[in-house]
Amino acid sequence: MFHKRLLHFVQLGGVGVAGYFVGQYGYNLKKEGQNDCLLINGNRIKNMPGLPIFGTVSAAAPFTESGTAKYRVPEIMKYGFPGLDNIHSYDDYVLSYDQRNRVPHWVFEHLTKAHVTKNDAVDRSKCEFMPDESIHPYFRSQNSDYRKSGFDRGHMAAAGNHRISQKHVEQTFYLSNMAPQVGEGFNRHAWNTLEKHVRKLTRVYNNVYCCTGPLYLPRKESDGKTYVKYQVIGANTVSVPTHFYKVVVGEATNGDLHMEAYVMPNQKISDQTPITSFMVPPETIERAAGLLFFNKIDRSKLSSINGRKV
Length: 310
Known about the structure:
This protein is an alpha+beta fold.
C-alpha cells in the first residue's frame, strides 16, 4: 500500500512539474509576442482566422517556409472549417479524412479563374491514382480496393479545378481525395456536370469556395424501419456513400456572398435532369453530415441561397 501511495505521489509531482514548465513556455512565448502562433509540422506560424485553434494540420508534402501550402490553408479555409477531424493540407486544397470509412469527411477548395483555366503545361493523362502516404497505413485505401468493384475512384476535389500547375493536379489523385462513385450516369455525367457548373461560377465571382463530401443517408425498408445501409469494397472495406454533397459560396466583387448547396444520390441519373433539382437547404446537409459549413458567415448576411434572396 505504501509503495502505491508513493507512486501516486510521484505521478502527481510529475504532472505538477510538467505543468510548471508548460506554463513557463507559454509565458515566454507571450513575452516574445508569439502567443498567437500555431506549431504545424515543426514550423511556428501566425494563427490566422482560417486556421483551426484546436487540432493539427498535416501536410502531404514537406512544409517549407517558401512553400505555397503555408499560405493557402488560411486562404482556402477563410470562412471556417466544417470540422477538425484528421485534417490534411495539400498545395491547393484541404481535406478532413474519415479513417473508419477510408474516404474524406469533406474536401475544401478555393477557386478563381486562374485555377480552372485550361493550361497547356498541365497534362491530366500523366496523373496516376496513388495511395496517400500521409494517412496511417491502417486507414489508407488502395487502388486494389477499387479494382473490379464496379465503382469509379471519384474525385472530391476535381482535377479540373487545379490547373495552375501539374503538381496541383497530381495531388488531386491521392486516394484520400477519392470516394467510390457509380461511373456511368453519375461520376462521368451528372456529377461531372455539377463540377463544371462550379468552375463556371468563377466567371461570375472573383472567388469561389467549394466544400464536397460523402453522405450516408437513412432509408425506410419494407419492414417499416429506417436503416443506414451502404456497401464496402476491397480488403480495406472502403465505404460506398449513398449520396454526395457540394456546398459552394461565391464571393462577388462588391463583397456579396451567394451560397448554393446540392445533394446527389450515388446512382445513375438521367442526362435530362437539371442540377437545380438537386439543390437543398444547406442545413439539411449539415444535419446529415454532422458538419457546419462556412460557419464564419452569418447566414442572414448572405445575399442569396440557391438563387433565392435571403
